[in-house]
Write a structure and sequence with these properties.
Structural class: mainly alpha
Bound molecules: protoporphyrin IX containing FE
Distance between the termini: 13 Å
CATH architecture: Up-down Bundle
Shape: globular
CATH superfamily: Transmembrane di-heme cytochromes, Chain C
Number of domains: 1
Largest sheet: 2 strands, antiparallel
Strand order of the largest sheet: 1-2
């Protein structure tokens, strides 16, 4: 076993505030939408908590953004520009998750601080961080005060469009969470990757080279 320092402190802080806020936003969002069905708390309480954690998520996003812009490490998120390399990398990785892992094969991707993500992670994380989360934050901000932001809402195509975007992204993030947490349990032990997101250090089996 050797240890590599994979997750810098600002990213660990960002990640767990992000994960906790997402869970709270999902529960309070469901409560807002299905108030009779769920009955976990009063409607207004759900709205207030949802708004508070919405703003926490917005500020937290800037921890991630500022860290990656100022360290220049954002390149770990960029998939290989060579299309063949990218497609083959994705196929290899998907084959591992769907087949190789059950045959005791080793993960085709070996993480290091400069090459942390496999091509599938790069594609997923890049679109999540630079497109889907910003869209969710902006649509949420507009819905937070529809009178104040009436002009912007109209520009985006009206309240139905903004609300549909917000709900579709909720569906995406909720599904992503299941896949993400499942994949997070596939380290050398079920909790290895998750521990690493707390300590910063990932334990990996030495490959003798
Ligand atoms: C309780 C739920 C969660 C758990 C247990 C979890 C677990 C993990 C673990 C173990 C890693 C490190 C392995 C890797 O880099 O893939 C990771 C990274 C990551 N997770 Fe999560 N996660 C959770 C929720 C979320 C949510 C809600 C999001 C976004 C919507 C998210 C986005 C990310 C991103 C973007 C990374 C890469 C961060 C970086 O190194 O720059 N995670 N997560």
């Amino acid at each position: 076993m050797k240890k590599i320092y994979l997750h810098p402190l600002p990213i660990r802080i960002w990640h767990w505030i992000n994960a906790g806020s997402f869970l709270i936003l999902i529960v309070t969002g469901l409560q807002i939408r299905y108030r009779e069905l769920l009955g976990l708390m009063k409607f207004q309480v759900a709205v207030d908590i949802h708004n508070i954690f919405g703003f926490i998520l917005i500020f937290n996003f800037f921890i991630w953004l500022i860290f990656y812009i100022f360290t220049g490490k954002i390149k770990i998120y960029i998939p290989p520009l060579n299309l063949k390399k990218f497609v083959m990398g994705c196929i290899n990785q998907a084959r591992y998750y769907g087949y190789g892992i059950f045959m005791g094969e080793e993960n085709p991707h070996h993480s290091s601080p400069d090459n942390k993500f496999n091509p599938m992670q790069q594609m997923a994380y890049l679109s999540i961080m630079l497109l889907l989360i910003p869209l969710q934050l902006v649509s949420g901000l507009l819905l937070w005060d529809i009178k104040q932001f009436a002009g912007w809402i109209n520009l985006a195509g009206g309240i139905k469009i903004v609300d549909t975007i917000h709900v579709f992204l909720f569906l995406f993030f909720t599904s992503f969470l299941f896949v993400h947490v499942y994949l997070a349990t596939l380290g050398h032990t079920a909790t290895a990757h998750i521990k690493a997101m707390f300590t910063g250090y990932e334990e990996i089996e030495g490959h003798g080279h």
